[in-house]
UniProtKB/TrEMBL annotation:
This is SDR family oxidoreductase. It comes from the Bacteria. Pfam families: adh_short_C2. The keyword Oxidoreductase applies.
Amino acid sequence: MLLENKVVLITGASRGIGRATAIEAARQGANVAINTFRDDAVAAEVVAEIEALGRKAVVFDADVAQPDSATGFVQAAVDALGRVDVFVSNAGICPFHAFLDMPVETLRRTMEVNLHGAYFMVQAAANQMVKQGDGGSIVAISSISALVGGEMQTHYTPTKAGVHSLMQSCAVALGRHGIRCNSVLPGTIATDINKDDLADPAKREYMEGRIPLGRLGRPEDIASVVAFLASDMASYMSGSALLVDGGAFANFQ
Ligand SMILES: NC(=O)C1=CN([C@@H]2O[C@H](COP(=O)(O)OP(=O)(O)OC[C@H]3O[C@@H](n4cnc5c(N)ncnc54)[C@H](O)[C@@H]3O)[C@@H](O)[C@H]2O)C=CC1
Ligand SMILES: C[C@H](O)[C@@H]1OC(=O)[C@H](O)[C@@H]1O
């Protein structure tokens, strides 16, 4: 098992990639703290799945965009599970909207959840790891959208480029403490975040057609890569980005 007896914290873990990552961490032997946001019934399902795997789970309901949520989440995890070995910054939103009439509030909220939220959370986790004194692993969910644009994502793609950049700078800032920081760049993974966008059959067919492996991603495709980066198998990786997209980015023509 890759994460035996580690304590893994994950933001936005009630659904999609975060949920799959929480379950995978438990399958790999970790006790897991999940941050969720106004999703109590689903959070209870995730806890039940983790406990069914014989691992401990704790839930902390909070909006990652609020700075206090970060210290609260880390403290709750330490109180319940003793320490922080791995931190996965995953929570994110992507309210698709055109550029020319982007509402200020949509831009602001997307930045605050995706980028500021990641910053606050990673900072709180890093402070706890430094206090513990024996290193750690931080993984942030960036995106293929850190590398390429999207017509309806002008507010979103800069946050994903920012998250990858945050991991690079944190790798530099935290290396002396033995803390590794890496990002995962998923391609198009079928989750709630793009359910409406991909409900358009033409859009779905177009996106599938761009992927050499011939299918959209599943949350589990990302969770296994996060588990690898979190684990000692990746002990000399820091400041790296792993693109997990079925080959989509490589497919120019
Ligand atoms: N699905 C995709 O194609 C891709 C997703 N990503 C990224 O993966 C991450 C997870 O997205 P998905 O699992 O696809 O979406 P999802 O919508 O299934 O899950 C998002 C999770 O974040 C939580 N969340 C939303 N706002 C929050 C807040 N303010 N505070 C705390 N939690 C909050 C939601 O409750 C949910 O559990 C996001 O950062 C997204 O940008 C990156 C590349 C591709
Ligand atoms: C939400 C989108 O479908 C998804 O988000 C990303 O980061 C990917 O690039 C996809 O566009």
